Amino acid sequence: MSAAKLFIDHSKEPLLAPATSYKPNLELYEKEWVPKIKAYNEKLSNAIPNEYLAPSTLLPDDLDATPFNAMGIPATVLDEKTLTITELNASEIAQKIAARELTASETILAFIKRATLAHQLTHCAMEILFDYGIKRAKVLDEYQAKTGHTVGPLHGVPLSLKEHYEFEGHVTHAGYVSLLDNVSEKFSLTSQLLYDSGAVFYIRTTEPQSLMHMDSINNITGRGRNPHKTTMSPGGSSSGEGAIIAMKGSPLGLGSDIGGSIRGPAAFNGVWGLKPSSKRISLIGSISAREDTTCEAIQAVLGPLSNSVDDLELFMKSYLAQRPWELDQQLFPLPWKEVPTPRASDLTIGFVYDDGVVKPHPPVIRALKEVEEKLKAAGVHIIKWDPHRVYDAVEIANAAYSSDGNSAVFDRLEKSGEPLAPLSEHYLQIGKGDKGLSSMELQYYTHSREVLRQEYLKLFNKRGVDFLITPTYVGTAPKPSTIKYWGYTSLWNIMDQTCVTFPSGVFGDKSTDFKDESYKARNVYEEHEYGIYDPEASDGLPVGLTLVGRRYTEEAALKAAKVVSDIISV
Amino acid sequence: MSAAKLFIDHSKEPLLAPATSYKPNLELYEKEWVPKIKAYNEKLSNAIPNEYLAPSTLLPDDLDATPFNAMGIPATVLDEKTLTITELNASEIAQKIAARELTASETILAFIKRATLAHQLTHCAMEILFDYGIKRAKVLDEYQAKTGHTVGPLHGVPLSLKEHYEFEGHVTHAGYVSLLDNVSEKFSLTSQLLYDSGAVFYIRTTEPQSLMHMDSINNITGRGRNPHKTTMSPGGSSSGEGAIIAMKGSPLGLGSDIGGSIRGPAAFNGVWGLKPSSKRISLIGSISAREDTTCEAIQAVLGPLSNSVDDLELFMKSYLAQRPWELDQQLFPLPWKEVPTPRASDLTIGFVYDDGVVKPHPPVIRALKEVEEKLKAAGVHIIKWDPHRVYDAVEIANAAYSSDGNSAVFDRLEKSGEPLAPLSEHYLQIGKGDKGLSSMELQYYTHSREVLRQEYLKLFNKRGVDFLITPTYVGTAPKPSTIKYWGYTSLWNIMDQTCVTFPSGVFGDKSTDFKDESYKARNVYEEHEYGIYDPEASDGLPVGLTLVGRRYTEEAALKAAKVVSDIISV
Fold first, then answer.
1. Which domains does chain B have, with CATH numbers?
2. Partner-chain contact B328 A454, CB within 8 Å
3. How far apart are CA A568 and CA A279, in angstroms?
4. Residues that bind substrate, according to the entry (chains A, B) (predicted)?
5. How far apart are the CA of A188 and the nearest CA of chain B, in angstroms?
6. ipTM value of the model?
């Protein structure tokens, strides 16, 4: 695959390492934890305002069995005012509230109604906090009425949160059953700063068991659905964020990403997502597997999802205006910088049609081609990007994920004995699986990552490219529990480069996107991922592409993505 | 020592872990490498322009045996023009050359003369490149004459380089005998950017075996001397830089620091040194023990030494103007930022009189008191800084240094079989010594470091302090091969905070700095370090203190250090 191979030749060895040694303890699970799961779901169910649900006559009997496009339901069900408000993006909402054309209370009510539909159709909610949101909006309205000011740039903007950020006084479980008693004492730092900027929290959204699937299944709330086709996956791990933003049940959401967990859901649900470089958004108070060790070889980042590029910028600008680096030593003191919008002819963009590991499915290839043609016609300089050691990057990522031999995940799982979701089983086998890394392997992989980053920097310089446009995943939203290769996204976690996922405007089309049944897979990854392509299943599903910028260039990447989006929307 | 202890209770256990397993191979060493060492030294010796040496009548017979203050020699020996030029600091030199009041050629010649004295007296040179410097200066003068411009902000400024940075076409050995054949193909990236800014290279300076002593002994050029008292150590590992800057044989030098290697030599020789936070100055092409693994738990930084705070700023400004982050992916894109000079009354400074591990020697305590009094009188707000978990930070640092079980150092040493310097033997035993860290220990220590950094950030916020003034080491320059505790400096490598070492204006004085023979050591470190205090040996030696700023605040820290220096110089 590459001259500079690292350790394992995946083209010859099986896709998966030896099976994981995790053994569920179903007796313990049924006895002690299933009741807690039931109670959790009852609470969730009781928080749903039934008066806002779509009538069952509009829906198929079984949304999990019938491929149903739920995207049109809100327009059918909602009153005009609610629809008008919820069609606004976050930037427009912030402006209108600041200009007193809209109140925070009207706004949150509209989004509560639409979020109710979103949850009914996609199971995007982990916890519903509508009363909390209504109270908060009222306080904000009163503040504005009294002082004439907003509390900050997000004053009154409804903001959905992936569940694994600590939320004052509420359980934070990160998709682990064993954490169902884990009540947070305060907000995660990032949540707190968003709150301080005026954001209104009202819903916490789903994530898969272990937070490490490009899918949505957990043992607490089950599986999520893709609103474009309810039998398909919304992706993951920011599963609920992808679905709720697509349904416009939320204008702005906070996700996290260590291998593609913002970008996958953004792409699969046809919305925008930003995976920033590390050290700009605080991780303090984000619950995951491990809390007493730190593996620096790969690092999670938080970032926003939304329905427009402007909202991603609003998020970053509002957040960084709070100078989070004065509160979190990990962060780099890099205030948001205003950069000019480039002209199309200022941009040189490399196009990635194949990463050398897994060839994209036909809808993705077609989306790339259409976008490339439009950009070229608008004067953007286009080059073909030859992939560089992607397999090695994937191997570094996989090895880093399980550098502790999965002991942290095991600790979380064993406490409840919960069964493994199929993709957890996969996740626990990638890299060196339960074996983990020795100290020297960890340091060697870290070094390999540094070398690879430097090679990529040199390639960007040498090829004169500031941005790439790449598949986010090889296909559209997948069937549940199928994706095993995330190399198109995890590459950029290893590189720590800025990624903006955007809707290409292209949808899967079974009448043109034929499967090449004669294609000969180059390796076991490709055998699997190309094998799961199903034109019928992908039909009608959005293709999300990703614009990749250099490291720490969120400002420039968002501006470039806006130019691209404006061109392809014409 | 601290409630939140990590692994080892050093107050109960011996100072050192089990002895190192390294065994010199003297047969190999004598046969294959001693001839190479001889050839290296002959070349060094031949490059010394004998006409510039001080007459032996001015010097004691044996500078290593007789405590001799060499600082006055240049004024006695040098012609007036040479003396005038070499008394200028780098900023003045750059200005005068840009204004055509001075040529690069005149300047380098003057510093060559004075550097010759510095080397004669302190053994500060690892490699003399005077002809190279003369040629380079001539080219710069011609360029300026022809174009009317300078090539950059360091045009014509002589700049000394610690040896371990790659130097095109020259051997780079990093103090390891086994690297005596290692000819560099190009400059280290930082050297190249300094060169591009107009710096004139003319000398490469000494470092100890392994680069990990607060001292100067290596098997290639032997031991260096402190110019204030030739029997004493110049410190390390930027040993030669400390000595040559003090002698004004160089106006500006480049050192490196992973535990105190810029700050120690700066303090012991009475000059200025900046240890920036990580990721501002490129490490590419800095040779050390390991080249195929990366331990992120502790990271080296490069930084300047000079005779004035202005020169440290000139260095940073000139260097960052070259946008090194576009060439080295590790670097943060943080251009130099102009910040205002604070008034004395704007500053709140915490004073560290004791780190809770090793009590400073009397000259250091006296220096702190004198500086504190002067600052207080000038209106600076002073608080006493209670030490926080310093022992734990030292343990993390020590564990991280040898996370690979010293295998990289062993590789370097075993190739030549060279004998261990006494402080290498010490170094190979700190942390977990040859045992190294398991993967989980490494990740646990990394996490502990993150926790500690966050605690420090909170303490700075809570105590309302922007800067600390702290001992750089517990005493003045030590006798050779004695320092075993670097906690006053390595703490800030673990914290990754900005440090500016500056001359306090105070010198050891045996008539007042009595040793408290009844002092009861709190732990084995203190027993050792307090035990080696010798008022007679410290008499007349400068005390260098360190101003500590927050992370990534080199700009503000240098401005604050300038205010402090102006106040204490009155």
1. 26-55+75-568 (3.90.1300.10)
2. yes
3. 32
4. 211, 237, 258-261
5. 15
6. 0.95
